[in-house]
């Protein structure tokens, strides 16, 4: 691994100041960043280890809002009775990330800010990939099994985070700190697609960090993930869903993971569900609508029936609550 400067700030202000240097990167649990550094996929001259900052690992009910610090570990989120009871989709998503070892180290902030897993991006020799500041997408004419069926443009890598899908369905807010102070970003605006900037996945500036994620507590929600291996694997497709309203749905949110460069809201299905109840025929039509507009590449059309099946299962599970 190429040499780098290791820093361990003790405050958010110090961290963002250290991140203002060129090629400085925040470190949470390191389960993604260290692999990137070992394979020299992105230049890294300074590592800013956030774990020296006290008070960023909380999981608490803040007057009816679930507040989770960016350094909260995925295992702690999965095991929290507060999260399981009041925001079950997030607890389910955290429990399905990778393996127990990675969930023990991996933080919520790192999970949301992780880089894409496209196998060409992760291949050290594929230096011409757009995401590595090159001018080519290897997936368009290559193996596109893991890639986007919605919203690809130049780059077709999907967003790999399971918690991002769940938090999109829960309409979370991301609290971000930078040199000018703190700002809050609705999760629907937090992720950036390649049509905006293919070099990054989020709105975070290089000297900004996530400090907290906030979710309004209460309505039923669910997260489901399809992955070839149960022990440890990224989603091929996932769904987070939440419905608000007792007999008649007032608001429905359906977020699809691993099918687009950002968590993809199935807006046609959501609009169709409003004012209806979750009867089997309604669920079946919503599942069809969730895949509307998908444009598969050469080898990822299998994601379309996966989307429909997972949405049907998720809504059926919610109808039983
Ligand atoms: C084998 C393997 C399997 C995996 N499987 C899954 C999976 O199934 N589902 C899934 O969702 N993920 C998966 N991951 C991805 C990921 O490593 C973990 O999910 C983990 O949550 C990342 O968190 P971390 O704290 O270790 O991040 P780090 O590696 O520390 O950081 C990841 C990125 O986020 C940035 N970052 C870290 N913290 C912050 C912050 N507070 N603010 C701003 N930026 C920050 C870093 O600079 C870096 O770019 C897997 C990883 C591996 C190696
Ligand atoms: S999909 Fe994106 S990350 Fe993968 S090769 Fe194409 S440009 Fe690179």
Describe this structure in words.
This protein has 321 residues and is α+β, with helices and mostly antiparallel strands. Helix content is 30%, strand content 20%. The protein has 13 helices and twelve strands. It has helices spanning 12-18, 33-38, 74-79, 81-86, 88-95, 100-105, 108-113, 138-141, 162-169, 187-190, 267-273, 280-290, 303-319; strands spanning 5-7, 24-27, 46-49, 59-62, 65-69, 173-178, 181-186, 209-216, 221-226, 237-244, 251-257, 264-265. The strands form three sheets. Strands 4-5-8-6-7 form a five-stranded antiparallel beta sheet. A four-stranded antiparallel beta sheet has the order 9-10-11-12, sandwiched between helices. A three-stranded parallel beta sheet has the order 1-3-2, with no helix packed on it. β6 and β7 (181-186) form a beta hairpin. α11 (267-273) packs antiparallel against α12. The longest helix has 17 residues, at 303-319. Residues 25-33, 35, 50, 70, 74, 97-98, 102, 105-107, 109-111, 113-115, 160-162, 204, 209-210, 232, 234 line the site of flavin-adenine dinucleotide. Iron/sulfur cluster is lined by residues 116, 118, 120-121, 129-131, 137-139, 147, 155-157.
